[in-house]
């Protein structure tokens, strides 16, 4: 019997834990702790523990599939490539759009970006970061000059006050949750604001439930109270920031008195007072946030408000402080770093910047040039263009995304994708999106590849191949290279290994330039920016100055605005959505993991006990949830753990898909949809 351990990085969340895959006779059969990673020190959450279970699922895609007369038939790679190449060549550049993937490696995202812009010469490439932290990328870039998490996971333990708002850290980033516990043991105060009493709330010293969509009002109110008590950091404000007076003008308004904020948010005045005092008098303090802040039509405003309060308190550029935007998917940070976005090349070099455009055109050497130096469409815009402007986009190549469950307003997404002339989906499983494709390409999963991924704290870590892919499945980078060669661009895609691709990435990306596979092999790996091979990497950003051109942090005066859709007589409740510990997004992997799926086999809608009583709804009863977009039948979970007037659904379950209900209203800057607040009604289902 052949037996080995292969150290790798978790394929689920952006925390970036390491573990060993246990390989017996060439097959992955289990996971075991890898103690040397400083991130998780050998601990993992349930998803990490069972991350081997889906790998050899009998449902894995093993052969290319081509749709003929409405049915998928198995094909050879040659047949699939020939068909795709012939079709792809028939479209004009901007009739093509690509979705890259936060699930795959940096190398693979880089190649997808190069394929879209270089082979297809299209401006349109994006990925699920749009649905996730696009408001962070835009908001923090405007405040600090860089859109990434400012501090490291480890230094959260050094914080004296941890303020968690819009992040259910203990379910969604459990091993970051562990750092909050360590901070608490060191004497830190923990404040938690969330419409639901989640497992994260159980760890808090102060819990503030509130109505979804009131974040700016809450943060402005806290800032007013901090300023009134003189708890702001005057030296930091003076030396490191600008526009403080503009901020003050807004937050000192009567609208943001604690009494008013209490009316808007539902948080008692006393709680707000305590929160302001703890924030003002326990330093350094760290803010942790995630989707509760970003997924709003005011997502960028929310993010800038978080940046405002941390600059006000002087909580930046030092250990135990920071604006810690917890990135979600294992490699969403990396997919953004690699330029799988419609406005930037790698390392956030702008496509509309002539020098950057020329740099990439020259480095890649496509004899017939690359895409125009113009902004492309975001995922959410692509879907709107498909339905509203038929014929403008004709063809899509989707790698490792499942918008038919994860995008807002699924009925709209279906109409959009069905209107395509040609759709290629590259995945490890058949998905709801794959069902609509013309060609399916079977990909290798994380356990079957080498490559790098970048976690939320900008730590670039290795994946290591533990087994061969099933059947004829191939690594995503190989598929892209072979397809590019079939289209006449073998010379631009000569890569024989992930490391060769990484070497090209280093050459064109200053923040990754000092990283090599050898350097990344150390358990602690490296944080970007890492400009030279001597550079130790950068766990904490903005130490001496901000990354903005003038080096200053910019305060932004932000007024509170309600969500795009608010409750009325017909739809009287606020509807919000999110995740649970045991499942991952569209469920393709966790629902094929026996242990996780047994733990939580289907979805539900959370309804406050008093609301349920008024509606005559019992716990466990199947109800119909209805919004202006559609309706789903779903079991009711009657609970005191959710704010009265608010209802919550996890979005993992295709049989009761929350995104049939959600609103496709977008933040005007980030184009992120308002997953966290719309209006809903719930009906009893009467027997026919
Ligand atoms: N188990 C598991 N872990 C995951 C994922 C997963 O699918 N499963 N996905 C990963 C990904 S990609 C991401 S982006 C992260 C997301 O991580 P989180 O953002 O922590 O997860 P969510 O459940 O989307 O939302 C967080 C909280 O926002 C609250 N909320 C709702 N409305 C509002 C509001 O208006 N304001 C505020 N402040 N809060 C509100 C919800 O009640 C919820 O508890 O998780 C990552 N980790
Ligand atoms: N209502 C609501 N909707 C939301 C959210 C919310 O909070 N509420 N959150 C949004 C957020 S933050 C996110 S990040 C998105 C996530 O949305 P998606 O990215 O669409 O969700 P995933 O299920 O992670 O889909 C990834 C796909 O990649 C495939 N895959 C996994 N590994 C590989 C691989 O190695 N190669 C290839 N080719 N494919 C692979 C999986 O099988 C799966 O089909 O959902 C968004 N949707
Ligand atoms: S916390 Fe995230 S990275 Fe760590 S084991 Fe759990 S899912 Fe994986
Ligand atoms: Mo996400």
UniProtKB/TrEMBL annotation:
The answer on whether this UniProt entry bears the keyword Oxidoreductase reads yes
Share an example GO biological-process annotation for this protein. Answer: formate metabolic process
PANTHER family in UniProt:
FORMATE DEHYDROGENASE H, RESPIRATORY NITRATE REDUCTASE
Start and end residues of each 4Fe-4S Mo/W bis-MGD-type domain: 3-59
The cofactor required is: [4Fe-4S] cluster; Mo-bis(molybdopterin guanine dinucleotide)
User: What start and end residues bound the annotated signal peptide?
Assistant: none
Keyword annotations of the record: 4Fe-4S, Iron, Iron-sulfur, Metal-binding, Molybdenum, Oxidoreductase
SUPFAM superfamilies, alphabetized: ADC-like, Formate dehydrogenase/DMSO reductase, domains 1-3
* Species this protein is from: Methanoculleus receptaculi
Q: Which family does it belong to?
A: Belongs to the prokaryotic molybdopterin-containing oxidoreductase family.
Q: What is this protein called?
A: Formate dehydrogenase subunit alpha
Q: Name one GO molecular function term.
A: molybdopterin cofactor binding
Q: Which domain of life is it from?
A: Archaea
């Amino acid at each position: 019997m052949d037996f080995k351990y292969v150290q790798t990085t978790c394929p689920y969340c952006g925390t970036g834990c390491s573990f060993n895959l246990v390989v017996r006779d060439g097959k992955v059969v289990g996971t075991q702790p890898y103690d040397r990673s400083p991130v998780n020190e050998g601990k993992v959450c349930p998803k990490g523990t069972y991350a081997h279970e889906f790998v050899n699922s009998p449902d894995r895609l093993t052969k290319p599939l081509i749709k003929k007369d409405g049915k998928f038939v198995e094909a050879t790679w040659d047949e699939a490539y020939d068909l795709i190449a012939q079709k792809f060549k028939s479209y004009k550049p901007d009739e093509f759009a690509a979705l890259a993937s936060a699930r795959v490696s940096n190398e693979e995202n880089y190649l997808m970006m190069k394929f879209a812009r270089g082979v297809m010469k299209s401006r349109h490439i994006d990925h699920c970061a749009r649905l996730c932290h696009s408001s962070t990328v835009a908001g923090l870039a405007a405040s600090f000059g860089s859109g990434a998490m400012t501090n490291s996971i480890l230094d959260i333990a050094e914080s004296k006050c941890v303020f968690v708002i819009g992040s259910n850290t203990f379910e969604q980033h459990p091993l970051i949750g562990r750092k909050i516990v360590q901070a608490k043991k060191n004497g830190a105060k923990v404040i938690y604001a969330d419409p639901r009493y989640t497992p994260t709330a159980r760890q808090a010293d102060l819990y503030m439930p509130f109505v979804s969509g009131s974040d700016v009002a809450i943060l402005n109110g806290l800032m007013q109270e901090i300023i009134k008590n003189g708890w702001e950091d005057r030296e930091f404000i003076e030396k490191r920031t600008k526009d403080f007076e503009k901020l003050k003008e807004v937050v000192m308004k009567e609208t943001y008195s604690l009494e008013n904020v209490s009316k808007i948010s539902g948080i008692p005045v006393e709680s707000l007072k305590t929160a302001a005092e703890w924030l003002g008098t326990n330093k350094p303090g760290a803010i942790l946030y995630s989707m509760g802040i970003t997924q709003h039509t005011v997502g960028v405003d929310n993010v800038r408000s978080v940046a405002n309060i941390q600059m006000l308190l002087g909580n930046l550029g030092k250990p135990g402080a920071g604006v810690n935007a917890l990135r979600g998917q294992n490699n969403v940070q990396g997919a953004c770093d690699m330029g799988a976005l419609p406005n930037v090349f790698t390392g956030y070099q702008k496509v509309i910047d002539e020098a950057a455009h020329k740099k990439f055109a020259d480095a890649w050497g496509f004899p017939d040039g690359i895409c125009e130096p113009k902004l492309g469409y975001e995922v959410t815009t692509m879907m709107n263009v498909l339905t509203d402007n038929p014929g403008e986009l004709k063809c899509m190549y989707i790698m490792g995304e499942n918008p038919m469950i994860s995008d807002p307003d699924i009925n709209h997404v279906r109409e959009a994708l069905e209107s395509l002339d040609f759709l290629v989906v590259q995945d490890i499983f058949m998905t709801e999106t794959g069902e609509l494709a013309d060609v399916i390409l079977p990909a290798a999963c994380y356990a079957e590849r080498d490559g790098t991924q970048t976690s939320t704290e900008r730590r670039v870590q290795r994946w290591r191949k533990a087994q061969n892919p099933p059947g004829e499945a191939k690594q995503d980078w190989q598929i892209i290279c072979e397809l590019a060669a079939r289209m006449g661009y073998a010379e631009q895609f000569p890569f024989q290994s992930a490391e060769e691709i990484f070497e090209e990435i280093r050459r064109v990306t200053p923040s990754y330039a000092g990283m090599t596979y050898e350097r990344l092999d150390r358990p602690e790996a490296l944080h970007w920016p890492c400009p030279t091979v001597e550079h130790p990497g950068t766990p904490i950003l903005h130490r001496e100055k901000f990354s903005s051109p003038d080096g200053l942090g910019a305060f932004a005066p932000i007024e509170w605005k309600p969500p795009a859709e608010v409750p009325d007589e017909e739809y009287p409740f606020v509807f919000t959505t999110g995740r649970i510990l045991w499942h991952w997004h569209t469920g393709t992997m966790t629902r094929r993991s026996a242990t996780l799926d047994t733990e939580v086999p289907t979805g539900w809608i959370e309804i406050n006990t008093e609301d349920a009583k008024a509606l005559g709804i019992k716990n466990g009863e199947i109800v119909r949830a209805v919004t202006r977009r559609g309706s789903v039948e779903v079991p009711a979970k009657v609970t005191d753990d959710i704010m009265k007037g608010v209802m919550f659904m996890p979005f993992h379950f295709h049989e009761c898909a929350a995104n049939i209900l959600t609103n496709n209203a977008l933040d005007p800057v980030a184009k992120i949809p308002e997953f966290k607040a719309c209006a809903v009604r719930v009906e009893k289902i009467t027997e026919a």
